[in-house]
From TrEMBL:
Residues 255-367 form the Myo-inositol-1-phosphate synthase GAPDH-like domain. PANTHER family: MYO-INOSITOL-1 PHOSPHATE SYNTHASE. SUPFAM superfamilies: Glyceraldehyde-3-phosphate dehydrogenase-like, C-terminal domain, NAD(P)-binding Rossmann-fold domains. Belongs to the myo-inositol 1-phosphate synthase family. This is Myo-inositol-1-phosphate synthase. It comes from the Bacteria. GO terms for biological process: inositol biosynthetic process; phospholipid biosynthetic process. InterPro entries: Myo-inos-1-P_Synthase, Myo-inos-1-P_Synthase_GAPDH, NAD(P)-bd_dom_sf. It comes from Bryocella elongata. GO terms for molecular function: inositol-3-phosphate synthase activity.
Amino acid sequence: MATPEAAQPSAASITPHTGKLGIMIPGMGAVATTLIAGVEAIRRGYAKPIGSMSQMGTIRLGKRTDNRTPLIKDFAPLAPLDDLVFTGWDIFGGNLYDAAKTAAVLDRDQLDAMKPFLESIEPMPAVFEERYVKRLTPKHQKVGKNKCDLANQIRNDIAEFKAKSGTDRQVMIWCGSTEIYIEQKPVHQTLEAFEKGLTEDDPDISPSMLYAWAALKEGIPFANGAPNLTVDIPAMRELSKKMNTPICGKDFKTGQTFIKTVLAPAFKTRQLGVAGWYSTNILGNRDGEVLDDPDNFKTKEVSKLGVLEHILQPELNPDLYGDMYHKVRINYYPPRGDNKEGWDNIDIFGWLGYPMQLKVDFLCRDSILAAPLALDLCLFMDLAQRTPSLRGLGIQEWLSFYFKDPDAAPGVYPEHDLFIQSMKLKNTLRHIMGEDLITHLGLDYYGE
C-alpha cells in the first residue's frame, strides 16, 4: 500500500550534496588507512568498491514486473567519492603512507601507487587517556588543563579543517581502539551533567566521548566503529536532538558477528533449537593487542554477546533457546596480523530433540571487511544530515545493518537480524525519496 501523500516525504526536500564532504577520523590505523587508500584506488580506477552497499548495491522500486532496480548511489543523492576529503587524529603521528605500511593490510605495491596522496595526509595529535587503552603508548598526544579544554581543542581542529579544506559538510567516524568497559554513570545522564563533568575532569568521560561531543556541538554526524560507550548515553542523545544532528550504533559488524546475524535468523525461522554457540577469534593487529587486556575485551564481549539474545528471543522461545550457552573468546596471536580467524562451534537440535552441529571457520581480513562499512556509514550519515525527516530523529536506527551493537529509541529493543536490517535500510531510502515501501506481500500479482 502506498504511503499517504500527506505523510510521504519528497526527495526535493533533501539538500543537494554540493561541494566537498570532509571525513574526520579519530584513530587512523588499519581500518582508516584501508578506507582512505581504498577510496583513492577506486577514484583512480585501480579497483572496484566491493563490499560497499552504497556503491555496488541495488534497490528495487515498485513491482518486480516494473524492472526498476537502480544502483543505490544512482537512486539516493549520496556524495560521490570524488567529493570526499579525509583528515583525522592519531596517537602515533607520521603520515598515512607510513601508517598503512605499519598496519600491513594492503600490498606494498598498491600503497606505492598512491604514495604521494597518502603522504599528504598527516593526522593531528589525538586526545588519549591511558586508563582507557592501557596497551598503547602515545607519541602524538594533545595536552590540556581538563577534558573541557581537550574537547575544545578538537572543536578548534574541526574549525581549522573546515577553513583549510574548503569542505561544505563533515562526518566523523571513530576508528580508534576499543576503550575499556564502563557502565553509564550520573555524568552521562543529562547534557548539563556531562558538560559540568567536562570542566571537572570527570574520569568517566572517555576520549571517544570528547570527540562525539565536539562533533555534535559542531553539527557533525557521529558514527562509532568500536564497541565503547560513546554516543549511546542520554547526554549525547539529548545533544544530538538539540543540534539536529544524526548519531547511530556502534562496533562495525564485520566477521564473526556478521555470520551470526545470518545463521541465527535461519535457525529461528526454521524453529531449530540452539543448545550452545562457542565462538573464538585469533588476531594479531593492534586491535588484538588492545583486546588482550581484560578490561578492553569486556567491552567487545558485551557487544558480541548481545546479538544472539536479541535475534533468538529466548524469553519467547524457551523450548528452543531458553538454555542456550553462548561463549565468546578473543585471543591475541601476533602472526595473524590483520587476517583474523573466527571459529564457531554451533550445537543445534531439531525434530524430537535430535542434536546436530555446524562448524564455521572464517578466515577473514578485518579491515578489508570494515572499510566499506565505514564508507557507507559516512555517506549515509551525510545523507541523513541533509534529509529533514531523518536528521531530527537523532538515532538513525535504519543504519543498524552496519553494527554489532545497533542503537534504538529508549525502551525499544534493537534489531539484529541482518535481513530485517537490510529491509529497514532500503525502505528508509524508498521513504525519503518518495517511493512506495516494499512489503514483499506479493498478492497484487494475483488479483482480478
